[in-house]
Amino acid sequence: MTTPLTALRGVGARTAERLESAGISDVEALLWQFPIGYDDRREPIPIASAAAGERAFVRGVVRRVGGRRFGPRTTLRVTVEDDSGSIGVVYFNQPYRRTQFTVGEAHWFAGDVVAERGGGLVLQNPDAAASGDALGVGRIVPRYAPPDGIGATRLRDWIAQALDDVDRVPPFALPGADPDGEPWLSRRDALRECHRPTDDRRLERARARLRFEELFALQRALAARRSRFVATHGVDGLEPATAIGPLVDALPFAPTAGQRAALDAIAGDLASRHPMHRLVHGDVGCGKTVVAAIAAGIVANGGWQTAVLAPTEVLAEQWGRALAALLSPSGVECVVVTGRLPSAERRAVESAIVGGRVPIVVGTHALLSASVAFPRLGLVVVDEEQRFGVAQRDRLRGKGPAPHLLVLSATPIPRTLALAAYGDLDVTTIPDRPPGRGPRKTVVVEPTRAPGMWTFVAERIERGGRAFVVCPSIDAEAASTSAVATAEALTADGFDRFGIAVLHGRMASDTKAETVARFRAGDVRVLVATTVVEVGVDVPTADVIVIRSPSRFGLSQLHQLRGRVGRGERPSWCLAALDGDEAPDALARLRLFAAHDDGFRLAEADLDIRGPGELLGRRQHGLPGLRLADPRTDRAMLERARAAAFADGAQPES
Ligand code: ADP
Ligand code: MG
User: Fold this and answer.
1) Are 599 and 186 in contact (CB under 8 A)?
2) CATH number of the domain that 129 lies in?
3) 509 lies in the same domain as 532
4) What does the alpha-carbon distance between residue 76 and residue 453 come to, in Å, rounded to a whole number?
5) What is the pLDDT of residue 622?
6) Sorting pLDDT into bands at 50, 70 and 90, what band is 623?
7) Which end of the chain is more exposed for a tag (fewer CB within 10 A), N or C?
8) Do 466 and 396 lie in a common domain?
9) Quick one: average pLDDT of 137-155?
10) Residue 308: its pLDDT value, please?
11) Which of 599, 617, 636 is the endpoint of a domain?
12) Domain annotation covers residue 605
């Protein structure tokens, strides 16, 4: 039921192409280009009440027309007056307007009110017409944000044409009633009202209906995904209740209450014949690895294999080490598969996996390759899941009959966003941190205090500490804050006595692994790195992290970086070293970062500042179709949509 764009008056092949490349594929899709705002043109306001920064709709008599020309640029100035006062109207580079205005004639104007340098107010580039019809006088007029290369007026005209055929849009029934307890407006009525409003209240109802529709459709898709997943027959023969005790007893430490609760939930999932479908998230350093290790141990006891997918080689190797430490006392072995295994070795490992001889396989994307085949894949663990797409984790799951899925995320996700983005998963939060961690302090350091900061860093190292120095780039020319330049400067300042190494993504994998190992061992006590150390790297003796040019990083990224320290008993420090030219809003963000050490609080703040995209990483593609609805502000509606969408099936825990 689609109508080609060229069916519209004023749309030829070229324009149609342009619209298509902006994601508007047919006439019906135009109706989903919602206005970004509305101009109330029912009644003009008195000119005297126009206020800077607002939009104004006025009617007045033209008193003066003047203008200037600078080369190709023109400025047209018109003075307009009503009973209450007068205001200037300015047009830049619209020379054709010159003939539009005659002194003594009345016109309607609608546009932005701007304060001029001298303090006076003007209307800047407003819509203007002598006849009310041309400006939609008497109505509420929608405002659109057209794609590049398309004029707003033309877009409005095409949408109006599309609206004439709105009855061809299929209906879409919604459960329940609207927020006022009245029946939902129909989809067609809502579209009509949204593009051609009749009154404020009805417009509000129309927009509420369309927002709810988006949220409901998204939740229904998640519910469908979940029920497909849950309907498959899972892995049998697992006995979590008996397996878990000895595995936990063999750990070098007692789990925290949060880890314990996550383990209980996982044990429950593994006891069921339906595949587990769970997200465990919690702040950096809360100890998610242990939780995954125990799950893998339970699965291994039942004779099944576990695949752990990690985003980088450094992390995959760290997982290998951690799992070996946590599980080898219980006799569960593990191998690591990364792109850097020599091919003979890789073939040997692959044949051991295929032979079912290794219970746990950790790897990077290399795990997804067809040559890695599991005869008995019972559990898939995806670490730092925001680094992967849903397709990748599905690909790994596809290597088993219907394996359990455990997803880990160190980016704490506010609940509303979790419901929208991870709504098909059960969500467990680990709210606490392992005991015995020293306090961690974050300080924003002004450039003038940098020398003192470096002295402080040197003192910490002399007392047995270790420092990360994170730089925004590797060796960008002229960037004194690049990793290479920073390492050179620190060497010149005598830091080479501590052992300095550089770590960045362009280094060979072997060198990277070796560098991290030397830092861990203490041969290198200053690691100058790019954000390759952002996720996961776990070196408990590190107690200082200096972040150069911190305004170049997002809040959640800064928090991830900060998570590299504070993993041991020593007090630790995160030093955000300013360049000195930070914009006020960047400074405000950094002060927020310094004030909140709690990842959840910070994530809420980040969500408010930058919207969901940053937080979700690649998962942002998991929020399709939200044009009007915003999980941040439509929380109650999201919960209702969710309850309704999952009404027929079990709702995930969250
Ligand atoms: P993350 O949740 O960031 O992945 P990790 O699993 O890497 O955190 O754990 C961080 C550090 O805390 C590791 O060194 C780990 O051994 C340690 N750890 C985890 N759980 C506990 C616990 N219950 N008691 C003491 N130390 C713990
Ligand atoms: Mg981790």
Assistant:
1) no
2) 2.40.50.140
3) yes
4) 56
5) 43
6) low
7) N
8) no
9) 88
10) 96
11) 599
12) no
568 lines ligand 1 (CB under 6 A): no
- Cβ of residue 289 lying under 6 Å from some atom of ligand 1: yes
User: Once rounded to an integer, what is the mean pLDDT over residues 82-95?
Assistant: 92
Q: How far is CA 142 from the centre of its chain?
A: 29
Q: Whose CA is nearest to atom 23 of ligand 1?
A: 255
- CA nearest to 559, candidates 587, 592, 519: 592
Judge whether 280 lies within some domain. Answer: yes
Please state the domain count of the chain.
3
If asked whether residues 271 and 387 sit together in one domain, one would say: yes
Distance CA 328, CA 250 (A): 9
Q: In angstroms, what is the span from residue 288 Cα to ligand 1's centroid?
A: 7
Model pTM? 0.75
Q: Which two tokens stand for residue 77?
A: 């100035």
Same domain, 262 and 374: yes
The answer as to whether 43 is a domain residue is yes
- Residue 28 lies inside a defined structural domain of this protein: no
Rounded to 10 degrees, the C-alpha dihedral 376/382/388/392 comes to 10
Is the per-residue pLDDT at 614 higher than 60? no
Output phi, psi for 475, to 5 deg. -150, 30
* Average pLDDT score over residue span 51-57: 93
Closest ligand to C-alpha of residue 562 is 1
Residues 457 and 586 grouped into a single domain: yes
- Residues 277 and 418 occupy one common structural domain: yes
Range of the domain at 258: 240-430
Amino acid at 636: A
One-letter amino acid at 69 equals R
370 contacts 363 by C-beta, under 8 angstroms: no
* Residues 587 and 499 reside in one and the same domain: yes
The predicted-structure confidence for 223-249, as pLDDT tens digits, reads as follows 888 888 777 777 888 999 999 999 999
Neighbours of 236 (CB within 10 A): 9
pLDDT of amino acid 180: 85
Is the pLDDT score of 617 beyond 70? no
Atom of ligand 1 nearest to the CA of 259: 23
SS3 79: strand
